[in-house]
Amino acid sequence: MRIRTVDAFADKPFSGNPAGVVVLDEYPADAVLQAIAAELNLSETAFAVPSAGGYRLRWFTPGTEVDLCGHATLATAHCLFADGVPSPVAFDTRSGTLTVNRSSEEYALDFPARPATECAEPPGLSAALGGTPRWVGRGGTDDLLCELADEQTVRELRPDIGALAAVEARGVIVTAAAEPGSGYDYVSRFFAPRVGVNEDPVTGSAHTVLAPYWSAKLGRDTLLGYQASRRGGRVGTRVAGDRVVLTGSAVTVLDGTIEL
């Protein structure tokens, strides 16, 4: 079985967010897919199978299947285009049809927008983060969006991962406006210990929540976000009604096989 590792939202190896990509003729048992994802131990591994009009696409963390994953979708499209599949490619997923277009070495992902709705701060959140957010909302598949004071606070945040796993949320997005002159509009980080990902390097799905939030605050549909993890990565965003177009690049870093 062929397996590739692709650094997504990256223009050079060992940056952005690595995803496993497996293109199959048909799906094996779910237990096999989960075991492969656990073996690779990346934040997500994507499994694609041809279907009418495109491909069926599923994503697994080392611990569970998830409803939406941006970087592994980008990584899968990158592999399919490298294999000669024409652009655009459509994916049938748990989150509906997702389309990826290729323009030169950049990819545009058409995803559903997932605006956050302001909510009361869940018990234990501030203690787990080590600070009190100035705004908290829920968006998408039960992710929390937390605006912090400034970019430095986001970058220097050292949350208690064990305590964060006890907070009622699939994942926690922390964000702030970028410092003037930084070259991007906002920064973010994403923590999802409940699904086996303590900190995700660059999270496409989080930007479907971030883009509507910051576009509304900044008054512009097109923005550039920077996810300030150790690896780091830039994600272009454009809000178009109830959709968000995410843009970024990808690099294949490993191409091999797994013996089953």
From TrEMBL:
Record carries keyword Isomerase: yes
One Pfam family recorded for the sequence: PhzC-PhzF
Entry keyword set: Isomerase
InterPro entries: Phenazine_PhzF-like (IPR003719)
Family note: Belongs to the PhzF family.
Protein name: PhzF family phenazine biosynthesis protein
Species, as recorded: Jatrophihabitans cynanchi
